[in-house]
Amino acid sequence: MNGTNNSGVTPRLVFYEDLDTPLQACRQDSESVSCLIANINGAVTGCLLPAVMVVGLLGNSLVAYLTLCRVKPLTKQNCFYGCIAVVDGVTLVVQGVLNGFLNKGLPWLSNGRFGLVMITVSDLGCKVRERPVGLRLTVA
């Protein structure tokens, strides 16, 4: 196959070269679908995601504290629930902050002036970046 799908159309892949790329569609045509998608994505990752992360971290911290420190005796089930809460908290921070807020939300809030672009150029970098998600799925 030479990069075409069943209909014979070559799929177009979109890669963001810099933080300003998603916002350029809005500068050219503010009524376009690309601009609408960029605004929805930016609003969700810039405004809603931090609130969800704070609530999630508070809930996971409370569950981890109660099941691992306060409940006596420490049973296998309580240990399991506490460990799931800890791993879920780590996943929230890594995925929410690095892959969500800093990559998409902060550039939208700052109009493309601030943000973080994480370019994974090696197999090790890819494994380190995606490890929390795999660990969470393995534990859960």
Automatic annotation (TrEMBL):
Record SUPFAM superfamilies: Family A G protein-coupled receptor-like
Q: Which Gene3D superfamilies match?
A: Rhodopsin 7-helix transmembrane proteins
Official protein name in the record: G_PROTEIN_RECEP_F1_2 domain-containing protein
Please provide the record's keywords in A-Z order: Membrane, Transmembrane, Transmembrane helix
Q: Which domain of life is it from?
A: Eukaryota
Membrane recorded as keyword? yes
The transmembrane segments are: 48-68, 80-102
